Prior knowledge:
Helix content is 52%, strand content 13%. The protein is an alpha/beta fold.
Amino acid sequence: MTQELTLSLVGGGNMATALAAGLIGKRCAAHDVHVIDPNEAVRSRWREQGTTVAAVPDAQLSDRRVWIFAVKPQHMKAVVLACRPFLRPDTLVISIAAGITSGTIAAWLGAPGKPWTCLVRCMPNTPALIGAGVTGLMAVPGVSEDDKAVAQQLMRAVGEVVWVKDDKALDAVTALSGSGPAYVFLFLEALMQGARDLGLNDEQSRQLALATLNGSTQLAALSPDSPAVLRERVTSKGGTTAAALAVFEQRQFTAIVHEAMQAASDRAAELAIEFAQ
Ligand SMILES: NC(=O)C1=CN([C@@H]2O[C@H](COP(=O)(O)OP(=O)(O)OC[C@H]3O[C@@H](n4cnc5c(N)ncnc54)[C@H](O)[C@@H]3O)[C@@H](O)[C@H]2O)C=CC1
Ligand SMILES: O=C(O)[C@@H]1CCC=N1
């Protein structure tokens, strides 16, 4: 364990669970994690893991080094304001909520004209559950190097990290790697369905589709060549791949992906406005 951190996890749902899978045992002990969640079933799950739990924040948590806010964007304002009385001026706050800007959160936590400076916005993704996540991070102006290092250390426990410069870039991260696992799962589902339609059984479809995605992404990561070059090497003139790619092109696959990512990024910007008031 590089550094034992005391942590308050506000919201104990899907993403918090994925983060905790990597953090507990690596960056903090289970008993150093306190989960705040109004849902008793959620609390019970965390209790079984050895964390402490509560339905609401309280003063006993004031000495926690880091508070991670992992509630839905629509709950962020009420939850942040409810927690604010229990934060010390040097408490590092990490928000993983999509959209809600660092400026908005810093204003909720700070005093008029004096926004909170111990704040890092992060956009992790669910492969964190198996230590294969990637997290985009951005720090507000004035954040200390120590706080940035702590945030990075936490997120490194569940995968790779990429720092970006502002909220707009973090919305782009959201559209790529935050939401991205869902795009990949959709593609995987489509490949498996296509294989079944061509006569393969469920197990064969699953094994072949997963190994294809896995092998191709590993090859792309390790190869000095671009994805376009790797794609061309699969594509024989007049062959099967060319026939398939012609359909992708005709149906404007690249444009669809582009449009989908734009929609995700636009939605992040909308959430920022919708739930900032
Ligand atoms: N699921 C994902 O892939 C990712 C989610 N996020 C962000 O993480 C946040 C949480 O998302 P999920 O974990 O998917 O949602 P979720 O619905 O699984 O978890 C949210 C949790 O917050 C709890 N909650 C509701 N009101 C609360 C309150 N007043 N105090 C404390 N806890 C409260 C709920 O009971 C629930 O357990 C969102 O803001 C989302 O944008 C970020 C990256 C990826
Ligand atoms: O769908 C969402 O809004 C969240 C943010 C990124 C992944 N899930």
